[in-house]
Amino acid sequence: MEEQEEELFITAADRCDKCGVQAYFLVIFDYGDLYFCRHHFMKNEDALRDLSYHIEDFSELLVKA
Fold first, then answer.
1. pLDDT tens digits, residue range 52-63?
2. Rounded CA gap, 16 and 36, in Å?
3. Considering 3, 23, 40, 43, which has the largest number of Cβ atoms within 10 A of its Cβ?
4. Are 1 and 39 in contact (CB under 8 A)?
């Protein structure tokens, strides 16, 4: 039996676990998930990439002013 891949998404209600602003990155670990705004993801990107299982980047949803 084939395993179905779960579709990941992010909503406006998802907030950065560090500061509470709208999240654009979903970082998946073996033991749970964390949401990050672009600022906090970029600030911690190297460590997050080393420790995470998967990262979903929804930053294309950011609108330039």
1. 999 999 998 877
2. 4
3. 23
4. no
Question: How many other CB atoms sit within 10 Å of the CB of residue 35?
Answer: 21
Question: For the purposes of burial, counting CB atoms within 10 Å of the CB of 25, is it exposed (0-12), middle (13-18) or buried (19 or more)?
Answer: buried
Q: What was the pLDDT predicted at 65?
A: 59
pLDDT digits (tens, 9 = 90+) for 26-44: 999 999 999 999 999 999 9
When the pLDDT of each residue in the chain is averaged and rounded to a whole number, the result is: 89
Q: Give the domain ranges of the chain.
A: 25-60
